[in-house]
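The data are quoted verbatim for reference:
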Amino acid sequence: MRRIFTSGLALAALATASEARAQTVLEQSAEHRFQLDFHVNDAALQKMLPAGWVSDMASVGAAKDANIRMIFIDRMAIVGADGKPKGKGSARLVYLAAPVKQAAGDGKGQMILAGIVDDAADAPGAFGVYAAATTAKMTRTATSSGAGALNDEDYDFAAAGGEHMQVHVKFERGPGAKGGGETRFFNPADPAKYQIFKTEQAIDIARNVTVPVPDHVKEFSYKAGGGKIASLFDGTEKVLSWDSFPWYVRTVSAP
C-alpha cells in the first residue's frame, strides 16, 4: 500500500489556489496614484476600527510606523467583469486606508476608513465610507529637460461633512520598482465581509524617513481634517513616506 503525505505548505498552497478560483471579478482599473504614509494618533485611529481589530504597522522597511495611508487616485480606465466601461469609465478620489489585523485571529489586510469621490454614484461605496465631493480638483503635469523629468501634482477634495484632503507635490521622477500582490480589504462595519484587491504596480519612493532613498521632493504641502477624520489630523500626525505610483493596475474581486 502506498501512502501519500501532503505538507502543510502544500495544503496552504492548495487552499490559496482554491480561493483564487472561487473569486468573482467585480471590476478592473488602470490608475495613477500618489500616496502619503502617515503615523497618526494611535488612540484616535483605534476608535475608528471595529471591535476585535487593531492597527498592523510595519516595524521595518519603507512603511515602518505607518498606521494610515492617504491615497489620491486618478482612475483612468474602469471596466466591469465583462470588459466594458463601468459607470463613467473614469473617476478621481482620495481615501484613507489602514493596515489592520484581528487582535485574536488570523484576519489580516487593510480597511478603508474614509474617502471622498468625485462621482456621487460611487458614494457610499462597497464599504459604506465614501462621501460625495463638494470639491474635487486634480492637476498633474510632467516636464522633461532631457536629463530628467519633474512631476507637478495637485489634488484637492472636500465633502459636505467638513472632511478635506489636499496635497501639492513637485518631485523628480525616479526609477519605479515593480511590485504588487493580493490584499484583503475588510468592511469596517462588518469585517466578516471583504473584497480582494489584486494589483500590479510600479512604485517610485520620492522621499522616505526610514529607508535610504534619494530625496526627490522639491515642493510639498498638504491639508487634511474635518468631519469624521478630524481626530486623525490634529497637528500631531507625521508624514513618513511620499510614494508615486506611475502605473497601477487593480482587479477587485469578491470571495
